[in-house]
Amino acid sequence: MGEFGHRRLQIDERYDSEASSPQAIGRKVLSYEETYRCPACASGELSAIALMDIFACDFCRHMFSANLENQSVHLADSLQPMGWQWNGWRWQTAQQSDTAAVVIWAFTLGLTLAPVGIIALSNYVFPPLDSTGFPHMWTALTLGSHSTISIWLLAEYYRWPWYISSRIRLNRLRERLFSSDDA
Ligand SMILES: [Zn+2]
Known about the structure:
Shape: elongated
Largest sheet: 7 strands, antiparallel
Bound molecules: zinc ion
């Protein structure tokens, strides 16, 4: 709770410094009458559902419960606790559990660096007799494939908007291809 209060304070300070800048003219307050760019997919438009304290996106179809008092929304239809703070112009991701983030980062860094380190070390300790580019190619291939897996893991955890929207686009393309096969 104390941590959250501290974070609120930081946001408020940033809020104040932005409010006093000349850009403050274009500021928009979070309210049910306005529409906003969806924070989850960054592709759809967020608008309030009539008579409900809930926003919905017309692209990713996610629902968001809103808290107008502290200008924030939370993903209402997902088990993952995702929240965004509206700062007057755009959304800012509210931090997720810090321990989970540390575990994810440690795991992805280990997954990316450990195999490459082992290959590089073995090349150093037992240098190849012939001077082909194979060890370098193998190292690059390992680094490429493992960092792809790491980026995918991070994208799943942080739900980066470009990742969410491209996954939806891919799914819809697949659905369209399947339905045209049936017809
Ligand atoms: Zn969306």
